[in-house]
Design brief:
Elements: H1 2-17, E1 30-33, E2 38-44, E3 47-54, E4 77-79, E5 106-112, E6 119-125, H2 141-147, E7 150-154, H3 159-162, H4 177-192, E8 198-208, H5 210-219, H6 222-225, E9 231-235, H7 246-260, H8 265-270, H9 273-284, H10 304-310, E10 318-323, H11 328-336, H12 346-354, H13 358-364, H14 373-383, H15 392-402, E11 405-409, H16 439-442, H17 459-476, E12 490-493, E13 498-501, H18 503-506, H19 509-515
Parallel strand pairs: 2-4, 6-7, 6-8, 8-9, 9-10, 10-11, 11-12
Antiparallel strand pairs: 1-2, 2-3, 3-5, 5-7, 12-13
Helix pairs in contact: 1-17, 7-9, 11-14, 12-13
């Protein structure tokens, strides 16, 4: 039955992917009238694309840390040929690129060239640990053509500008501005979906990593987001991850200001973006999610796990996904940076993470013959790490509480180096299906850079990617994913087969729940 279900989806995908790629050479201009003004799009890769559309007013200079406001309407026709600049960020991991562009609140739209009305709309929120990334890094045409949908990607403020508590005296004080940017973009998209042939009553909000967590945060604010989107896709992000409260975030912001040498608002508004970003890096002391959203404010009213337990979230269908080897990515970064993970250093690495529980953890996760210690450490960290939202058991728990369809990307043969991690130096161990590895299946040649130079997928990986796209297409249309996808299990997508698995047991989540009960629901949902 499972194979029959997936064969049907593959057939549907083949029909969609076979749609005419008219005018692929071009460019040929096409003008769409939006509520902000007219925009001219161009044909690229068989899709009609509009790039760099401003959805918000400038947020630089005296407007730094202001609540986002709609962009002023323009006259004439805006040529939407080029991406807007990425929001300010530092280069990271020897891979991602620096940007100093504060007036960065733009979005991009891609849709099939054939005329149609009321196509489903997919809104994509990029990842980057809330301090990096950009909408321009993702080719949208594959999803637009493969799902016969209107696909939109959004820039939003990052790091010290978008996820640090804004200083007193600014209009954004007390808000999470990166999330407020996303919310304003959603209002623009809903108002203009029909102009691009989309259905304003069928919008799916999707994202990966920090983008996934952003989707979670929008779900946790039902009053603010009711009607702005109707489905959600969460890729590698646990909605119930503990977060700072507003007072804690304001204390952290004060540390950033001190590191920057600023004692007043005028200094904070005038300081060079990279100097402020560097101050934030020093204040965070290497904490991976130092700029995660904070709660207890108008943007995110309640602690997220509390909201999940109470059922106080936006009730829309959810597709919750993750990768098989999420945290091996970060072990790989450490190894590329010079860290040595050996049989001798493995116990110390475990003790540094799990403290007084390390002996129990080491007994559960001993080194395996023939497996590199870095693989074991990465798999352990992937199953559960206290306070980190990209670990299996927390993602499974939040998926259960959301009543989501759940799936896992498990293609350990797809390229990773040059996608999620620099090609050199060679990490020296099997990375597997690491955090963000699935992005190359959705966005061709995704490389975390504007160059989009990731290796092409092999034939088996491409077949799996087509199946994933067809599954997403079915989901955003409200099509049932079938009785072969039980709500109590997770569908594992591997090149060998696609089948349901009891990953709660496989990833030892009962053990982790017993050791860290505060991160889980007291009792299993009925």
């Amino acid at each position: 039955m499972i194979r029959t279900c997936w064969n049907a989806l593959i057939a549907a995908a083949a029909l969609l992917l076979a749609a005419p790629l008219a005018a692929q050479s071009a460019p040929q201009g096409e003008v769409v009238t939006t509520t902000s003004g007219k925009v001219e799009g161009f044909i690229r890769n068989g899709a009609l694309e509009f790039r760099g559309i401003p959805y918000a007013a400038p947020v630089a200079g005296d407007a730094r840390w202001s609540l986002p406001q709609p962009a002023a309407p323009w006259t004439g026709v805006l040529p939407a040929m080029h991406f807007g600049g990425a929001c300010p960020q530092a280069a990271r991991y020897g891979l991602t690129e620096r940007s100093d562009e504060e007036n960065c609140l733009t979005l991009n739209v891609s849709l099939p060239t054939a005329k149609a009305a009321k196509r489903p709309v997919l809104v994509w929120l990029h990842g980057g640990a809330f301090v990096g990334g950009a909408a321009s890094l993702y080719r949208l045409d594959r999803l637009a053509r493969g799902m016969d949908a209107v696909v939109v990607s959004v820039n939003y403020r990052l790091g010290v500008f978008g996820f640090m508590a804004p200083p007193a005296g600014t209009s954004g004080a007390g808000h999470v501005l990166g999330l407020e940017d996303q919310r304003l973009a959603l209002r623009w998209i809903k108002a203009n979906a029909a102009a691009f042939g989309g259905d304003p009553e069928n919008i799916t909000l999707a994202g990966e990593s920090a983008g996934a967590a952003s989707v979670c945060m929008q779900l946790m604010a039902p009053e603010a987001n009711k009607g702005l989107f109707h489905r959600a896709i969460i890729q590698s992000g646990a909605c119930g991850t503990p977060l700072r409260t507003l007072p804690q975030a304001e204390m952290f912001a004060a540390k950033v200001a001190k590191e920057a040498g600023c004692s007043d608002l005028a200094c904070l508004k005038a300081i060079d973006p990279q100097a402020l970003i560097a101050a934030g890096t020093r204040a965070s002391k290497g904490e991976l999610l130092a700029f995660a959203p904070f709660t207890g404010n108008p943007t995110v009213p309640r602690p997220t796990l509390e909201a999940l337990k109470a059922g106080d979230f936006l009730r829309v269908p959810v597709l919750n996904g993750f990768t098989r080897d999420e945290m091996r990515l970060y072990v790989g970064y450490d190894v590329q940076g010079g860290a040595k993970i050996t049989p001798e250093t493995y116990p110390a690495a475990v003790r540094a993470i799990y403290g007084d529980k390390a002996d129990k953890v080491l007994a559960r996760y001993p080194l395996k013959p023939g497996e590199h210690p870095a693989e074991t450490l990465g798999s352990l960290m992937t199953d559960f790490m206290p306070g980190l939202g990209i670990t299996h058991c927390l993602m499974l728990e939040s998926g259960r509480l959301l009543g989501a369809y759940q799936w896992e990307y498990a293609d350990r043969t797809a390229p990773v180096r040059g996608v999620s991690i620099p090609i050199t130096p060679e990490p020296g161990f099997n990375l597997g299906a690491v955090h963000s590895a699935e992005l190359n299946a959705l966005f061709p040649n995704f490389s975390n850079t504007a160059a989009m130079t990731a290796p092409d997928l092999g034939p088996s990986s491409q077949d799996l990617a087509d199946l994933i796209v067809s599954t997403w297409s079915a989901f955003i249309r409200g099509t049932s994913l079938g009785k072969d996808w039980p709500s109590t299990t997770v569908m594992r997508f591997d090149i060998r087969n696609v089948r349901p698995r009891d990953l709660w047991s496989e990833y030892q989540c009962d053990f982790w729940k017993a050791e860290y009960p505060a991160f889980f629901m007291a009792k299993d949902p009925q």
